Amino acid sequence: MGKEDLFSIISTWDFGKKANKFAAEVLREGGSPLDAIEKGINVIEEDPEVMSVGYGGLPNEEGYLQLDAAIMSGPLHKAGAVAALEEIVNPISVARKIMEKTKHVLLAGEGALEFALRNGFQKRNLLTDKAKREWLKQKEKKIETHDTIGMILLDSEKNVYAGCSTSGISRKMPGRVGDSCIIGAGLYVDNEIGGAAATGMGEKIMMFCGSFFIVENMRRGMSPQKACEEVIKRMISKGEKEWVGFIALNKQGEYGAASLGKEFPYAIFSGKEETVKKSRFFKRREND
Length: 288
Ligand code: ASP
Known about the structure:
The chain has an eight-stranded mixed sheet with strand order 4-3-2-6-5-1-11-12. It has a five-stranded mixed sheet with strand order 7-8-9-10-13. It has eight helices and 13 strands. The longest helix is centred in the first third of the chain and has 14 residues, at 15-28. The chain is globular. α2 (33-45) packs antiparallel against α3 and α7 crosses α8. The N and C termini lie far apart (54 Å). It has a single domain (3-282), classed as 4-Layer Sandwich (Glutamine Phosphoribosylpyrophosphate, subunit 1, domain 1), CATH 3.60.20.30. The model has no long low-confidence stretch (mean pLDDT 96). By secondary structure, the chain is an alpha+beta fold. Bound molecules: aspartic acid. The site of aspartic acid (ASP) has 14 residues, from β8.
């Protein structure tokens, strides 16, 4: 049995498949689980075709990008995160540096950029022509879009790790920070239990401490699937209507996903399977 049989990776959206593959490759080549999370997410951050993460992501109302990202290590029970980071292609890598090199968890805005530059990251214009065209179209039609690459990894030693990265909601207010850099909202890991990660309307995810909630549900004995569903049901019970989705993975390598309003694809990579599945979704409450 190869080493790839002994780990499981789950990521949000179709592009999660590419991220998982890359992360698995890093592990196979002897990289650490944190390298796998970071490099797997880097691939999506650097992909100009993914218009909700890193380079080529969609800008805010003023036309520039502000990125959020976080990474968490189960065995260390430590995390690093960046909020509203500008002009850096790989916010997940900056988040990892914050976790490993500072006593802080979250750096925001100018301070995060300064830290990144001091640590060898280069400034780059993140706005592609394609993203600018899409932004103009969205402005005219008054629409907004968003997604996040969220990844959870269970390694061969049964340790759990997670990471996420996003350019947030398109046309958001400058300075708006979403769930993806908030530990417990956009992602959470407890090394005794498992991990969870979120995508969708960050304001709603934050208000329910979505990822923490899921991990605590698993602690109380729920399967990852049920744990995700319970959060969605709680949100619906409070009248929430905006789209959110969660993925979860436990220490046994079992996984699940649930969402509000409509399904979303998520990608699995393990010794047993390499596939993209659809979340179970729950309907909004209609009459309030
Ligand atoms: N959760 C992200 C945010 O609110 C967006 C998304 O994943 O759809 O910034």
